[in-house]
Amino acid sequence: MVDTPKKPRKKAEPAPEPKLLASESRGRRIKRWILRGLGGIAAFYGLLIVLFSFLPPPINLYQLSESWRLGGISKDWVNWDEIAPVMGRSVVAAEDANFCLHWGFDMAAIRAAAEQGGTRGASTLTQQVAKNVFLWQGRSWIRKAIEAGLTPVVELVWSKQRILEVYLNVAEFDEGVFGVQAAAQHYFGVDARDLSALQAARLAAVLPDPKGRSASKPSNFVRKRTGAIMSGAETILADGRADCFQDRE
Questions:
Q1: pLDDT for 1 beyond 70
Q2: C-alpha–C-alpha distance, residues 187 and 202, integer Å
Q3: What are the tens digits of pLDDT across the range 200-213?
Q4: Are 209 and 100 in contact, with CB atoms under 8 Å apart?
Q5: How far apart are alpha carbons 190 and 168 in whole angstroms?
Q6: pLDDT of residue 119
Q7: Considering the entire predicted model, what is its pTM?
Q8: What values do phi and psi take at 17, rounded to 5?
C-alpha cells in the first residue's frame, strides 16, 4: 500500500483585530447617517418646492434678518394677474433676457462672465429665486452648490410664469421694501397692476442694487438703464422671448 503525500494545511488567516472592526463599523455608521442627512435635506427642499409651486412663500432668511435689523419690512404678495404685464417684461429684459430660452442656466452668459474674469453676473431669474426663497445671501461655494442643485428642480416643477411671479414678490426694491406691490406703493403710490412702462422700467433698473439706487429719484445711471430696459421689454415682446410667461398683446 502506497502512502499518498498529504497536502500541507493552509495557515488560518488571523482574525481581524477588534479595534479595526470597530473602526470600520463606526465609519459605515457615519457614512450612513451622512447619506440620511443629505437625503432628508433633499426631501425637505423638494417638499418646499412643491408647496411653493402654488402657495406664496411666507418669508425668507434675508427678509427675516432685515426685519430684525430694521424693526420691520414692507411686503405684500400679489398674484400674477395683479401685476402689470410690462413689469414682468421689464424685469426679464433687465435681469435675464433669455429667460424663456433656458432651463435655469444661461450658458452663454456664464461663458461671457468667465471670459471677463467674473466681473459680471450670470445668474438667471431662476437661480435668483432659488437663492432668495430657499437659501441665504452672501458668496460661498456651499450656497452656490445648493443653488445649482435647486435651480433645475424649480424649473422642472414650476412654470416660467410662476418663477417670475415669485421673483417679483420676493425681490428687494429698496431697503426693507420687498415685492413689486410694496415697491409700486412706496415709489409711485400706485398698485402693481397700474404700473406704467416707465415706472416698471424704473423699478427693474434699481436691481440688483436696491440700496444704492432709487426709482423715484433716479441717478443718471438709472435713467440710462431705464431707457435700455424699456427698449429691451419691447424687443422681447416682439421677438417672442416673453411668450413663456405671457400672451402676446
A1: no
A2: 10
A3: 999 999 999 999 99
A4: no
A5: 16
A6: 44
A7: 0.85
A8: -65, 140
